Amino acid sequence: MSTVIPEPSLQQDVHRLYKDHHGWLQGWLRRRLGDRERAADIAQDTFLRLLVTRRLPGSGEGRSYLAQIARNLVIDQWRRQRIEQAYLDSLAMLPEPETPSLETRAMVIETLLQIDAMLDSMPAKVREAFMLSQFEGLTYPQIAERLRVSVSSVQKYMIRAIQACYQVLYAE
């Protein structure tokens, strides 16, 4: 269980955790990832996350807490790479004059990452209804049949999903 730490002792506590566990965490990551530089980057990001969130592990939970943060960072990084690669693969199919600028690419990738996070945070049936509608082109009655729910439930799921998309796209 983590606790929120007041600012004065936060840096000292993170420094102590860093001193006690950084070498172990980096070795643990290196064994799992097989990449020294990537392990070093994620270990640093793990401690940065502690400073940003201001949450530290409880007594005796240092390694398991740090490992969980590091696992989440690896998953986030893998997800980002997967989304970027899928987008770049789709761009490779476009004729040269239609290829978007680097700035546009970065904006699209960031939006795709936000949508991915939004979809991941949705309840399973809402996410599935949205995916069936948008990516498989199913009608609401077809989705209702597939999910074994009423058409009105599908409508509610879609409203919820579309509102979440709208928030991601137009929140700023």
Question: What gap, in angstroms, lies between the N and C termini?
Answer: 34 Å
- Major sheet strand order: 1-2
Number of helices: 7
Tally of individual domains = 2
Structural class: mainly alpha
Q: Tell me the β content.
A: under 5%
State the order of secondary-structure elements, H for helix, E for strand. Answer: EHHEHHHHH
Residue-averaged pLDDT: 84
What is the number of strand segments?
Answer: 2
Rg for CA atoms: 21 Å
Low-confidence stretches: none
Note the main sheet.
2 strands, antiparallel
The helix content is: over 70%
Shape: extended
What report would you give on this structure?
The protein has 172 residues and is mainly α. The chain is built from seven helices and two strands; from the N terminus they run E-H-H-E-H-H-H-H-H. It has helices at 7-33, 36-53, 62-92, 102-121, 124-136, 140-147, 151-170; strands spanning 2-4, 55-57. The protein has a two-stranded antiparallel ribbon with strand order 1-2. The longest helix is centred in the middle third of the chain and has 31 residues, at 62-92. It is extended. Belongs to the sigma-70 factor family. ECF subfamily. Residues 113-165 form the RNA polymerase sigma factor 70 region 4 type domain. Keywords: Sigma factor, Transcription, Transcription regulation.
